[in-house]
Design goal:
It comes from Noccaea caerulescens (Alpine penny-cress). Pfam families: PPR, PPR_2. Keywords: Repeat. This is Putative pentatricopeptide repeat-containing protein. This protein has about 250 residues and is mostly helical. The chain has a domain at about 1-110: Serine Threonine Protein Phosphatase 5, Tetratricopeptide repeat. It has 14 helices and no strands. The protein has helices at about 10-20, 25-40, 45-60, 60-75, 80-90, 95-105, 110-125, 130-140, 145-160, 165-175, 185-195, 200-210, 215-225, 230-245. The longest helix has 15 residues, at about 165-175. It is globular and about 60 Å long.
């Protein structure tokens, strides 16, 4: 379809590149970016952001650094979309220090997305306390919090064993921050308790949820039951999941 277009404008190029990146066709996305540049099309922030996210998925540090250099030469290094993608790329490639440098370069105009990406980057590196510190800074600086902020911070607590901090965050979402917890927040909290070996507390949390637990929450709980050797409870959860998704082989 793309090749059949007689007139390809920047929007059509970006739509193709972004589509490849978002659908997980990361290698094709990178190749298409090269094709775009060889066609003398002006690369904008959307194109840089998309291809950097593909580099994140592929964990290709060298290529990501090359594209970082191109973005800097094109004066897009401080663009909020590009910066967030750079933070993600360096975090996924294991260079959290470079991710933080990119984050610090936009200190005067950090978006919520950039903060969220940095918090999640530290979470993935097991630096949950640093993630919590960033969350506190967001609050102190009146940066707008969103659902992703809490998912990232709860994930940080989960990966670092900060049980009380994570539960406190979940319980304060609605009364303090006026954000209603979603299924992904409960799943993160179940994972937090499961990793800490608190399977019964995870069960209590699921039963007290104002929402009916979806398969993601139950699969998280199932993994916790199995990891803790609670096989009877695991069997019950697995049977429930089979009723919900009879064709799913996870159970």
């Amino acid at each position: 379809l793309f090749e059949s277009l007689k007139s390809k404008d920047l929007v059509s190029w970006n739509s193709m590149l972004t589509g490849l990146s978002r659908t997980g066709l990361s290698e094709d996305s990178v190749k298409f970016f090269s094709y775009l540049r060889s066609s003398n099309v002006e690369v904008d922030d959307y194109a840089f952001s998309a291809v950097l996210r593909s580099c994140s998925d592929l964990a290709t540090l060298e290529l990501g650094q090359q594209i970082h250099g191109l973005a800097a030469k094109s004066s897009f290094e401080s663009n909020e979309f590009v910066t967030s993608s750079l933070i993600l790329m360096y975090s996924k490639c294991g260079v959290i220090e470079n991710a933080r440098k990119c984050f610090e370069q936009i200190s005067s105009k950090r978006s919520t997305v950039a903060w969220n990406t940095m918090i999640l980057g530290y979470a993935q590196h097991g630096l949950g306390q640093v993630s919590l510190d960033l969350f506190s800074q967001m609050c102190d600086r009146n940066v707008k919090l969103d659902h992703v902020t809490f998912t990232a911070t709860l994930t940080a607590c989960s990966h670092t064993g900060l049980v009380q901090e994570g539960l406190g965050l979940l319980n304060s979402m609605e009364p303090v921050y006026k954000i209603q917890p979603r299924m992904e927040h409960y799943a993160a909290a179940v994972d937090l308790l499961g990793r800490a070996g608190l399977v019964n507390k995870a069960k209590d949390l699921i039963e007290s949820m104002p929402l009916k637990p979806d398969p993601i929450v139950l699969k998280t709980f199932l993994g916790a039951c199995r990891a803790c050797g609670e096989m009877e409870m695991a069997t019950q959860v697995a049977n429930h999941l089979l009723e919900m998704e009879p064709e799913d082989h996870f159970t």
